Amino acid sequence: MAGKRKKNPAGSTNSYRGDVLRVLGALKVAAADQIQRIGAPHLTFRHADKETPSKRKQARTASHTGALSDMRKHGLSENGGSTETGDSLRHLTTKGLQAASHELRRPVTEMGSTARGAGSSGASHPMAVNETVIAMLRPKPSMAKLAVDPPHVQAAVDAPDGIGTIASYWTEVSLPATGTWNAPGKGGAQADIVLTAPQDQVPLLFIEVDNCHESAEELADKLEKYARFFRRKVKDTDGKERPMWRTRWSAPDTWSGDRTHPPVLLVFNRLGERNPDRTVPRLAELTRHLWQGSGRRAVTTTTTAGSRSLRPAWGT
């Protein structure tokens, strides 16, 4: 035990460091609160009896905060500014991304950047992206890790399942219209989130998160860039020309043909002054040529957080 504490001064365990690597490897930048809610949701209920919200938060995030402290000493993570509410932001170093690639079982070349500087202005957009991932994951507490199971814990366990695991999510993914995956050129898009969860009937989904600062015209321009990327063809490893997205992600047999494209989901987080109820109809009008197809139309839904979303049906 003494040797372990010498190696890890904050006393963190492999499981909590693994949580940090998996979450930051997928989300790039996050607060300890978000890491805990994804990696160890049972801690939220274990410390529910603390007197104040701040004490409950401090108690439930203590283990991951200790893990982050140890990882910083080992050159795996760094502090990266703070949120608008004062929470410290953390991100991985290049060495940390390499370690995370093993935890997530994905190539180092697909791990993305270290997100250095993402928290310099409050990181409102990365935080909204993270909350979108959490809303889709719906992390559930492990009953085996709780000594007492009050009714609200059982209610959380019995709630509908989420989509995929943290390893199902990629963030800040370049979609090059020119150039290569590793050196994208001008004119391409950058997906806020890419989700692959075929086990939950979501084989491939691209997600854009808007804090209601952008106009319908600006959002339409982003979708045009998506369409440009989806239409782009490159030579695959067998020498045959295929849509570029198919060289990185698989698709169901029903998605046959070069004109069938993956869906894009728009999630609106009502922070800015723009009203999504007005943005969505205008956006649908501007992008009709992209999603209308034959016998399909855009579907408007509501997220678990109450945000409006538009799902264009690409291509078919």
Structure description:
The protein is of the alpha+beta class and 316 residues long. The chain folds into two domains: 2-127, Orthogonal Bundle (Arc Repressor Mutant, subunit A), CATH 1.10.10; 166-311. The protein is built from eleven helices and eleven strands. It has helices spanning 2-7, 14-27, 32-39, 42-46, 53-73, 94-104, 124-137, 151-158, 216-231, 276-286, 288-291, and strands at 29-31, 77-82, 88-92, 169-175, 189-197, 202-210, 233-235, 241-243, 264-268, 299-302, 308-311. It has a six-stranded mixed beta sheet with strand order 4-5-6-9-11-10, sandwiched between helices. The longest helix has 21 residues, at 53-73. The termini are far apart. Residues 1-6 and 296-316 have low confidence and may be disordered.
List keywords for this structure.
globular, Arc Repressor Mutant, subunit A, 11 helices, 37% helix, disordered N terminus, alpha+beta, 11 strands, 316 residues
Distance between the termini: 60 Å
| Strand line-up in the sheet with most strands | 4-5-6-9-11-10
- pLDDT below 50 for ≥5 consecutive residues: which ranges? 1-6, 296-316
Q: Helical residue percent? A: 25-40%
Oligomer: single chain
The best one-word shape is globular
Number of strands: 11
Number of helices: 11
Report strand %. Answer: 15-25%
SSE string:
HHEHHHEEHHHEEEHEEEHHEE
The largest β sheet comes out as: 6 strands, mixed
Q: What Rg is obtained from the alpha carbons, in whole angstroms? A: 21 Å
The secondary-structure class comes to alpha+beta
- Mean pLDDT, to the nearest integer, reads 86
Number of domains: 2
